[in-house]
Write a structure and sequence with these properties.
mainly alpha, binds heme C, 10 helices, about 240 residues, Cytochrome Bc1 Complex, Chain D, domain 2
Length: about 240
């Protein structure tokens, strides 16, 4: 009998502790600063196990034909570069304010099955979106295939793949602001240095590279974030 009371007391205390955190208003919910170590461990481990389990018997289709990689590149450049960057391409400025910060996938890529799962389903309580609702499995496998190659690519190779797919380097994430004009600015492949002055366009993905290096709209960051419409695209090229 005694043991029952002990268990009930412990459970009661735990419930009280949880309620105290929920209602006490003292928990740090800001996006700055790291999680306390036990919380970080818990989140990391939980995620790792869940993804491992979910991908256990996922069948990986063939991923290394040229068409798949090209599809993957196009989607990667449109949907992922904003947050994860690419060789020679920095992520957008706002990404530094995300917690957790999206990792550089060229430094550290998961297995294709895991990438596929993560991209399809997203990661709760991080900024990682789910692309499953808007994309087919085939497209997402292509992205996973491309991500798998990412660590092998140099900035020059990435830039030239982007151009030969008919996109511009600064178009990352920008779904169609059609500024074909500035491709030229990139062609030295020296991509990343220019990011430095690119802070203007933060919100848009494309802030970091050429965009601005070239011509663009010196410091009027204010206007940019909403639309990043580049109406002045004309004088870039
Ligand atoms: C809005 C920003 C954002 C976009 C866009 C985005 N991601 Fe993420 N991604 C994140 C964040 C945040 C994480 C979680 C980082 C963490 O938990 O440490 C993440 C995690 C990941 C991971 C797991 C990395 C690891 O090793 O833990 C992969 C793989 C990934 N993203 C791939 C992609 C791909 C591929 C795309 C494009 C289809 C994409 N992401 C688009 C923000 C983004």
């Amino acid at each position: 009998m005694k043991i029952v009371w002990t268990v009930l007391a412990v459970v009661g205390l735990l419930v009280l502790a949880v309620l105290a955190v929920a209602y006490g208003g003292l928990a740090d919910v800001s996006a700055t600063g790291p999680e306390p170590a036990p919380v970080a461990w818990f989140l990391e481990t939980t995620r790792h196990s869940a993804i491992e389990r979910a991908t256990d018997d996922l069948e990986v289709p063939p991923l290394d034909d040229a068409a798949t990689l090209r599809t993957g590149l196009v989607h990667y450049h449109e949907m992922c570069v904003t947050c994860h960057g690419a060789p020679g391409v920095r992520p957008a400025e706002l990404v530094q304010g995300l917690n957790p910060v999206p990792p550089d996938l060229a430094e550290h890529a998961e297995e294709p099955a895991e990438t596929f799962w993560i991209v399809k389903h997203g990661l709760k309580m991080t900024g990682m979106p789910a692309f499953g609702p808007t994309h087919s499995d085939e497209e997402l496998w292509a992205v996973a295939a491309f991500v798998d190659r990412l660590p092998e690519l140099t900035a020059e190779e990435y830039a030239s793949m982007v151009r030969s797919a008919g996109m511009t380097l600064d178009a990352g994430g920008g779904h169609g602001h059609g500024g074909g004009g500035h491709a030229g600015a990139q062609s030295d492949g020296g991509g990343h240095e220019r990011g430095a002055d690119g802070h203007a366009q933060g919100a848009a993905a494309d802030g970091r590279d050429a965009a601005v290096g070239a011509a663009g709209a010196p410091h009027d960051d204010a206007g940019d974030d909403a639309g990043h419409a580049h109406p002045e695209g004309g004088h870039d090229g």
